[in-house]
Write a structure and sequence with these properties.
The complex is a heterodimer of chains A (324) and B (273).
Chain A lengths: L1 E10 L14 E11 L4 E5 L6 H8 L7 E6 L2 E2 L4 H7 E4 L11 H11 L4 H14 L15 H13 L5 E5 L7 H18 L2 E6 L2 H7 L2 E6 L2 E6 L1 H6 L5 E7 L8 H6 L4 E3 L2 E6 L1 H12 L7 E7 L3 H7 L12
Helix pairs in contact in A: 3-4, 3-5
Chain B lengths: L31 H19 L3 H17 L5 H34 L2 H5 L5 H31 L9 H22 L3 H20 L7 H9 L1 H11 L7 H30 L2
Helix pairs in contact in B: 1-5, 2-3, 2-5, 3-5, 3-6, 3-7, 3-9, 5-6, 5-10, 6-7, 6-9, 6-10, 7-8, 9-10
The chains are: A alpha/beta (324), B mainly alpha (273).
C-alpha cells in the first residue's frame, strides 16, 4: 500500500555563524526503498539522527525529497503532497499546536479539520476518548497533563476521522504501561476491523520486537536491513550477549579479563560483549570464579535483541537505541 | 503485543492492494468555512487556558498612555487622536505583536506540522487564528475607548464605529502579524518584528500627527493601523465626515485582504519545507 523508491534528501551545508559551528552537507535519507503492506505494523528503527523522522516527513508530504518517489494507496505523494493528508493520519513528536486546548477540543477540532461535520466529529471524539480511557480528563488542557497523558491525547486526536494509514512518530514516549497498552489495543482493533496500516517510528528495541510485523533498520539515512524482527534476529542467532558490570573498575590485572578488553563495548562500569555461545560460557566461568569475581558486581547473558542486529549490521551509533 | 497476524486481516491484507493500479479513494477535504470556524473556536478557547494575561497588559498600557498624554495635549483634535490611537494600539498589541509571536513559535517548534498533515485549506488556519486574535482585542479596545472618552470629555455617541474599526484594523494588523511570524526565519526575529510593529503603532498612532516631521508622517501613512486611528478619530467631531471615515476603513480592509493573502502564502511556504 506504500511504496518508496530511491528517496533521497540532503540538507545543505550550513555556514558557521558566531557561536554556531558550520555543519557539512548531511544526507538525511539516502536512496531509501521500502514496501509497506496493507494491514501491517511496519517499523522504522534506528538511533537519533538516523533519518527516521526525515523519512516520515517525506512520506507525509511535509517535506519534498530531492529525488525518488513515494506512492501511498496508488497516490503519488511527492507530486501531490496535499493528498497525503487525506490518506493518512500523522502523530508527530510535537504537540504545540494542541497544547493550550482541552483534550476534548483537541480531538474534536482535529476531526473537523479532517473533514468531519460537527456531529460526526463529536461522536468520534467521544468514542476515541472512551476507548483510550481519556474521558475523565477530557476537560483538562493538554498543557496541564503529564508527558505520557499528553501524548495519549495527541494520539486520540490522530484517531478521530479515520484514515487507512497511521503514521506514528514515537507514539508511546513517556507513557506508563497502561497508556501503552491502550495505544496498542486501539491500533490492533483498527487493524482487525478495518485493515488499518501503521507506520511506526521508534528507537525502542523492546517495543519494536513486540509490536512490529516488519521493521526497517535505519542508519545514517540508509535502510541497512528490512525483515520481521525474528528474521532479523536470526541473522545474529549465532551470538550471545554478555554484559558484565564491575564494582568499580575492570580487574585488568587478571590476564583473561585484560584479553577481552579490545572486544568490549565499554560504558562506564558496564562491559558488553557479543560472543559465540561456547566463548560466552568460558567468559562467564572466568569472571564468576577466581580473581575477577571480587571485582564483579553483576552479569547477564542474553539472546540477541534488535540492538545487536543493528550493531552486527554495521550500525554506527554505539548508543541511542533504548531498551525499555 | 500485537495479537492480530497481518495475513488474517479483512481483504486478504498482505497480497491485495500491492498490484492494484487503481488509486484508493481519498478522505474528505475539510471545507473552508467549517474548518475556519473550528480553528477560530479552538483559538478562542486558548484565551481561557492561556488566560492571555497580556490582554490586560494591552489595556493598562493604553490607559496609562492616555493618562500621561492628558498633561500634554490640550483637548480638541489632539485629544481625539490620542484616544483613537490608544484604542487601536490595543489591536496592534494583540493582533500584530502576539499573533506574530504565536505563529513564530508554532513554526519553530514544528507545531505547524499538525495543521499541514490535515486536509484543511491554509486560509482557514490563518483566518481562524487572525480572527480569534482580533476578537481578543474587543474588550480591551472598548474599555480603552470608553475610558478615554470620559477622561478627555469626548462624546460617546459614535463609539459604535468600533464595530467596524476593530475587525478591519484587526484584519490588517493580524494579517501583518501572521505574515511576520510565518516569514521570520527564527522565533526571536518574529517576536522582535512584532514588538517593532507595535512600537511603530504606538509612536505613530498615539502622538498627534501635526507635531511630527515630514518623514515620520510618511512612515505614519504607510502603517495600516493609522487608517483605523484616523477613521475612529474623525467620529469624535460634531459633524463627522462619514465619507472620509469610510475611505479610511476601506484602506484598512484593503490592507487586511492583502496582508491575509500574504500570510496564507507564508503559511503554505512554512508548512512544506
Amino acid at each position: 500500500m506504500c511504496a518508496v523508491r530511491g528517496l533521497t534528501k540532503t540538507y545543505p551545508a550550513a555556514r558557521g555563524r558566531r557561536g554556531v559551528p558550520a555543519t557539512p552537507e548531511i544526507r538525511a535519507t539516502d536512496d531509501v526503498r521500502l514496501d509497506i503492506r496493507r494491514g501491517e505494523i511496519f517499523g522504522l528503527l534506528g538511533p537519533n539522527g538516523a533519518g527516521k523522522s526525515t523519512l516520515v516527513r517525506q512520506l507525509t508530504g511535509l517535506m519534498r525529497p530531492d529525488r525518488g518517489s513515494v506512492e501511498i494507496l496508488g497516490h503519488d505523494v511527492v507530486r501531490h503532497p496535499e493528498r497525503a493528508s487525506r490518506i493518512l493520519a500523522y502523530l508527530g513528536q510535537e504537540s504545540t499546536a494542541l497544547d493550550e486546548l482541552t483534550v476534548s477540543l483537541a480531538a474534536e477540532t482535529t476531526g473537523r479539520l479532517r473533514g468531519l461535520d460537527v456531529r460526526r466529529a463529536r461522536a468520534e471524539r467521544d468514542a476515541v476518548l472512551e476507548e483510550l480511557g481519556l474521558t475523565p480528563i477530557a476537560g483538562r488542557p493538554l498543557k496541564k497533563l503529564s508527558g505520557g497523558q499528553r501524548r495519549l491525547a495527541c494520539f486520540a486526536a490522530a484517531l478521530v476521522g479515520e484514515r487507512p494509514l497511521l503514521v506514528l512518530d514515537e507514539p508511546t514516549t513517556g507513557m506508563d504501561p497502561v497508556a501503552r497498552r491502550a495505544v496498542w489495543s486501539a491500533v490492533d482493533r483498527r487493524r482487525a476491523e478495518r485493515g488499518t496500516t501503521v507506520l511506526l517510528v521508534t528507537h525502542n528495541v523492546i517495543e519494536a520486537e513486540t509490536v512490529l510485523d516488519r521493521v526497517a533498520v535505519l542508519d545514517r539515512g540508509r535502510v541497512i536491513a528490512c525483515d520481521t524482527p525474528t528474521g532479523l534476529k536470526e541473522q545474529v542467532a549465532g551470538e550471545v550477549r554478555v554484559e558484565l558490570v564491575w564494582r568499580e573498575a575492570a580487574p585488568l590485572h587478571v590476564p583473561e579479563v585484560a584479553a577481552l578488553r579490545d572486544r568490549v563495548v565499554e560504558s562506564g562500569r558496564r562491559w558488553t560483549l557479543r560472543l559465540a555461545p561456547e566463548e560466552a560460557r568460558t567468559v562467564v566461568a572466568t569472571v564468576t570464579g577466581g580473581a575477577a569475581f571480587a571485582a564483579l558486581d553483576d552479569f547477564t547473558l542474553a539472546t540477541p535483541s534488535l540492538e545487536d542486529v543493528y550493531l552486527a549490521l554495521g550500525g554506527a551509533a554505539r548508543q541511542g537505541l533504548v531498551k525499555a | 503485543m500485537s495479537v492480530v497476524p497481518a495475513d488474517v486481516l479483512p481483504g486478504g491484507a498482505l497480497a491485495v492492494g500491492e498490484t492494484a493500479p487503481e488509486p484508493a479513494g481519498l478522505g474528505p477535504r475539510a471545507r473552508l468555512w467549517p474548518s475556519l470556524a473550528a480553528v477560530y473556536r479552538a483559538q478562542l478557547s486558548r484565551a481561557r487556558v492561556a488566560r492571555i494575561p497580556l490582554l490586560f497588559v494591552a489595556t493598562f498600557q493604553s490607559v496609562g498612555i492616555m493618562i500621561l498624554m492628558r498633561g500634554v495635549v490640550d483637548g480638541g483634535g489632539e485629544a481625539q487622536a490620542v484616544v483613537a490611537g490608544s484604542s487601536v494600539l490595543v489591536v496592534a498589541f494583540v493582533a500584530l505583536n502576539l499573533l506574530a509571536q504565536y505563529f513564530g513559535q508554532l513554526r519553530a517548534s514544528g507545531g505547524l506540522d499538525h495543521y499541514a498533515t490535515l486536509p484543511v485549506p491554509p486560509a482557514a488556519v490563518v483566518l481562524g487564528a487572525a480572527g480569534a486574535y482580533a476578537s481578543f482585542t474587543v474588550p480591551g479596545t472598548v474599555v480603552t475607548a470608553v475610558f478615554g472618552c470620559v477622561l478627555f470629555g469626548l462624546p460617546l455617541a459614535h463609539l459604535w464605529v468600533l464595530a467596524a474599526v476593530i475587525p478591519l484594523a484587526g484584519a490588517a494588523l493580524a494579517g501583518l502579524g501572521a505574515a511576520l511570524g510565518l516569514l521570520a526565519p527564527r522565533p526571536e526575529t518574529a517576536t522582535l518584528l512584532g514588538q517593532l510593529g507595535m512600537s511603530a503603532a504606538l509612536l505613530l498612532g498615539v502622538l498627534p500627527a501635526e507635531r511630527m516631521p515630514e518623514a515620520v508622517r510618511l512612515a505614519r501613512d504607510l502603517l495600516p493601523s493609522t487608517y483605523g486611528v484616523e477613521a475612529f478619530a474623525r467620529t469624535f467631531g460634531p459633524h463627522p465626515d462619514w465619507a472620509r471615515v469610510l475611505g479610511d476603513l476601506a484602506v484598512c480592509g484593503g490592507v487586511g485582504v492583502i496582508s491575509l493573502a500574504v500570510a496564507t502564502w507564508a503559511y503554505r511556504r512554512a508548512a512544506v519545507r
